[in-house]
Amino acid sequence: MPLAAKLFIFSLVCALPGIDLGWKLLQDNLGANPVETLEHTTGDWTIYFLLLTLSISPVQQLFVPKWPIPMHLIRRILGLSAFVYALLHLAVYFIFDMGLDIDAAVEDIATRPFIMIGMTALTLLIPLAITSTQGWQKRLKRRWQQLHKLIYPITFLGILHYALLVKADLFMPLLYLLLFGILMLLRQFKLPRLR
Amino acid sequence: SSLRFQPNPQYRPDLKLTDAEHALHYNNFYELGTDKSDPYRNADRLITDNWQVRIEGECAKPQTFDMDDLLAIEQEERIYRFRCVEGWSMVVPWIGFPLSKLLNKVEPTSKAKYVEFISILDRKNLPGQRFNILDWPYREGLRIDEAMHPLTLMATGLYGEALQNQSGAPLRLIVPWKYGFKSSKSIVTIRLVEKQPISSWMQATPSEYGFYSNVNPQVPHRRWSQAKERPLGSFFKKKTLMFNGYADEVASLYSGMDLRRYF
Fold it and tell me: ipTM of this complex > 0.90?
């Protein structure tokens, strides 16, 4: 299969949760609180894709040395998926929670730490999305590597954003934090190949 | 199962009822799980056979009632607004009777300044009680004048039928001018007390959940605004009303109180 076809299929797979959500939206099948469903689902997938992006290197080193698609392209598509889900998440918040009222949104962001943290994470994702192409990678050289290390604080802020909005049950955000911690730790070591 | 009840025309606001489908599948009942879909999914884990309610404390005639005793009280249907602290709301037809009718049976003494409500404790069967997300059993409280207020209802049914488990069967409180978590579900003990009780939510997060928890669009939750609410089934928000639209009936209970301080 040509690489372009593989990339297309992989991108489509990453888009499936969004397509599913859009389909349910059209069918008016998002449950009692459709906006909450949209908001939580897009938020969850943002975090999943951030964690998946971070898992690619350790998984390669530990288990799967050879990939059907070059690793950097997989990482790019996963990272861009996180960005797209984060944008959808913001759009749902701005359209339905803030009712397209910019003043209300600015006040909300300024007064509520968890919103501020989420906005910070999304803002930091923008330069990474813009510079995700090969052209930018060549142009920035070693700086590109440094810039894209922002994915670590972004993921942490994303999880923190989630943890700070939960009422009492911190199980899921703590689970994400644990996964993030493990991925960060793995990065500290030169991993042996298990395979 | 169906209940015998009379609609009470006095409590029929000119509001569109929430779809029963929504109200019965989207619930906060942490004993059955913290996800909104958990209570319906795990509903059969709540065992309501031979349910009894003990009323005790500062009263002349402490008593234990079974459901037949309670269903012998005249049941009426009232359509109330219901506003969750999380910012969603619904309009639903409860069936039940004023709590005052029940409390009067035990003859509260002059020391009965507050009422504490204690919900079911069943760690073996209730999946949410295997973890101490809250300090179980769930506890809530009202001031005695709030408890005796004609709007305060002991609900036994919803949408014309006996309460389903996910809605707090077989007996729950409904205090329509307060955030939903004040309306305890599956109550087993009602205690008349002299001192203000500490609710499970106050104990868990005292900075966010106060004793009164009256619906108040002007006093935000520590982490989000309470100015608006989203009716279940709808995409857009509408303005939240002071005391959830019951200001005419209940504002006098709090005259002279700083509602920012006593949130």
Answer: no
Peptide bond into B98 cis (omega under 30): no
- The residues spanned by each domain of chain A are 3-188
Q: What is the spatial distance between Cα A36 and Cα A28, in angstroms, rounded to a whole number?
A: 14
Comparing C-alpha atoms, which of B46, B65, B62, B22 is closest to residue B231? B22
Candidates A100, A164, A167, A174, partner chain B, best to mutate (most B CBs within 10 A): A167
| Length of chain A as a residue count | 195
Helix (H) or strand (E) holding B174: strand B172-174
Model pLDDT for residues A51-86, shown as the tens digit of each residue: 999 999 888 888 888 888 999 999 999 999 999 999
pLDDT at A189 over 90: no
What are the pLDDT digits (tens) for B27-80?
999 999 999 999 999 999 999 999 999 999 999 999 999 999 999 999 999 999
Enter the CATH code of domain B6-207: 3.90.420.10
Report the chain B residue with the minimal C-alpha distance to residue A94. B236
pLDDT tens-place string over residues B110-143: 999 999 999 999 999 999 999 999 999 999 999 9
Give whole-number Cα distances, B180 to B28, B89, B234, in Å: 9, 9, 19
> Domain coordinates of chain B in residue numbers?
6-207
**Residues in A touching B30 (Cβ below 8 Å):** 168-169
CB within 8 Å of chain B, chain A residues 146-185: 164-165, 167-169, 171
Is any Cβ of chain B less than 8 angstroms from the Cβ of A194?
no
Q: Which residue of B has its CA nearest to A96?
A: B236
